[in-house]
Give the backbone structure.
Amino acid sequence: MMTPPLSAAIVFALLLLAPLALAGLALVNAGLGRSRSAAQSLLGSLAIMAAAFIAFAGVGACFAGPDGALSFNLAGKSWNWLGTAPVLLLHLARSPIESQLGVLFECLAAALVSIIPWGAGADRLRLAAGWAIAALMGALGFPVLAHWVWGAGWIGQLGANFGLGAGFLDPAGGATVHVLGGAGALAVVWIAGPRRGKFPKEGLATAMPAHNATFVLAGCMIAVVGWLAFNCAGALLWLHADLNGLVITALNTLLAAAGALGATLVVTWIRFGKPDASLCANGWLAGLVTSSASAALIPPAAALFTGVVMGIATPLLVEFLELALSIDDPAGAISVHFAGGLWGVFVAGVFAPQKGQLLAQLAGMAAVVGVFLPTVYFAFKLLDRFIPLRVDPDGERIGMDLHELGGGAYPEFVIHRDESYR
């Protein structure tokens, strides 16, 4: 059993590696978009991280903490809805080390939540809109859900109040980060609409392939380091795992990603005659996302099974959303984060040893989707009235790099041609 100082030191070291998950996703998003928007995509990711850090540290952390500001009794049970703490982290220096590490974990998680919708809005989402979305999610959306799950909120207390297992368990943010981020991605796609020319009036959807598969695959390799850090730090912080649990968590993270990649590779090979690099990358990330909720809670064989199932589902979901529902999601964020996060949370309940844990997981899933999906949509819809999410048609035509930054990512190459949009 690790002593608390050693445990805190390990968590801090892990959290220093966690930003690699953000860096990996930023590269994946840039590579999956078009070449004439690559610089704007990467600068946007960096700006979104900055906005989320400031918004969470300045405002959001006071709502996410374990102290209840808004709670009430119902049927003899306490329902804790919102945390309270001084703004601008004025209390942090006097807090125990565990609380400080929790704030650092949540600050990084807020940035991860905010970067997910940015990928879904690639090639048409304005930089100012991405910044505003990050500020909104970092200050309000994510902190409220983080309090519900990690801050002694009502979802986390389903076990104590109603005997449902150990309450809703989500140690590294399968729902708290990825389902919420996926809900933001879905809202962005609905409000901003598809890229011009993606769905012509006649015929099938137009293929807009990833402009840089090297970015995409390198981003996947970088992201896995950050995911290992997030999953292991979450297990220590929120589940109080020991060293043995830490090793299993890391192994399960790798097995889920490996199983998902292998399954997606086989599915795309069978369907298209050759493996598809971008879809395989989506499969790898989807496996990592499923591990966020489940890696610290299930055995290795179950982690591999979880990844395989998600790896089969991911390319089929991407195709279904595009062809059947006309949803243009260049990064596959809805399939990877929204669906992958839900699957990971569900699997954590299926394989958990505690009686009633599956009911707790289902109740938490219903609360996250039922409350935050419509809330995020209407919040983004209201935001769109003041800070339009979508760039104007001419900006989209010439590319986000030239329109918003005045220069392209590849100045020595001709990357633009006139296109007819219908």
User: Anything to note?
Assistant: Residues 125 and 390 are 5 Å apart (CA to CA). Residues 243-272 form the longest helix (30 residues). The chain has 15 helices and two strands.
